[in-house]
Design goal:
Layout (H helix, E strand, L loop, with lengths): L1 H41 L6 H23 L7 H5 L2 H32 L15 H24 L16
Helix pairs in contact: 1-2, 1-5, 2-5, 4-5
Length: 172
């Protein structure tokens, strides 16, 4: 079934984003440790630490959006299904997904076009001049993946509740 294989690919891509976000968190933690130690050892902040922290946070956000979309980890409130029936829930899920798809793809497009401007528009960190372009592209790709996941779920008819069973039993 084509829907299942596409879902598998989307899950793998989401997992790759999660791995990149995990690496970014490790780098962020190490950067923070170095910054705190440097502040106490040298008596002043280490030049450029804030720049590295900012760009690593962009990767954490990008990875979280993509991973959370595939695993159904984003917050949703089920008030409508408690008050209305299953038929109303299907309609509201469809509307919510259509709005989500539009917003995700528009956001992806906006991030991509903003990333294209690059240094010419002054999109770089203030101290180390790290260009924002790859981070805009990562965020754009993550939002596009989110929109694609919503689109596949819309066409396959995957209910919102069904995602929670794919998260390897972790319930919070």
């Amino acid at each position: 079934m084509p829907g299942k294989s596409l879902k598998g690919w989307l899950t793998r891509i989401g997992d790759l984003f999660a791995f990149a976000a995990g690496l970014a968190v490790v780098i962020l933690v190490m950067t923070t440790v170095v910054a705190v130690a440097g502040r106490y050892v040298f008596g002043q902040p280490i030049f450029g630490i804030e720049d590295v922290s900012r760009v690593m946070l962009a990767f954490v956000v990008a990875g979280s959006i993509a991973y959370g979309a595939r695993r159904g980890a984003h917050v949703h409130v089920d008030v409508i299904s408690m008050q209305a029936g299953r038929r109303v829930l299907r309609v509201t899920d469809t509307i919510a997904r259509l709005v989500g798809i539009a917003v995700a793809f528009l956001t992806s497009y906006a991030l991509f076009t903003k990333g294209l401007c690059g240094k010419a528009c002054g999109y770089f960190t203030p101290n180390l001049s790290i260009p924002h372009m790859p981070f805009y592209f990562a965020l754009s790709l993550s939002m596009a993946l989110f929109g694609l996941i919503l689109l596949v779920d819309l066409f396959t008819g995957t209910p919102v509740e069904e995602h929670s069973s794919e998260d390897d039993g972790e319930q919070f």
